[in-house]
Amino acid sequence: MRLKKIQICKLVWVSCFTLVTFPFLGAVQNVTQTYEQGLFILVLLGLLSFPLGPLLLYFVTTLQIIEYQNSFVLELIVISVSCFIGGYAQWFIILPRIINKYWN
Q: What is the CA 91 to chain-centroid distance, rounded?
């Protein structure tokens, strides 16, 4: 039964990321709207994956691996992938290992 609870948590977590990211892939009318939507997505995904997701996003942006600042869709992809990888690793790989090591 415990395994099912973990799978349900993963499904809900991935669904939350999907529900935040995909509605904003549509057309954007002006620059102000793009900035507001990008900030909204950054805050929501940052909260879902805090602290490792925003930390990974910070490293991706400071290393300037990808030039994404002229494209809203590419910016959204960089934000969502960085936060997704960081949050998934944090909540479903690192934290369970720490819990198993110190509390079992």
A: 12
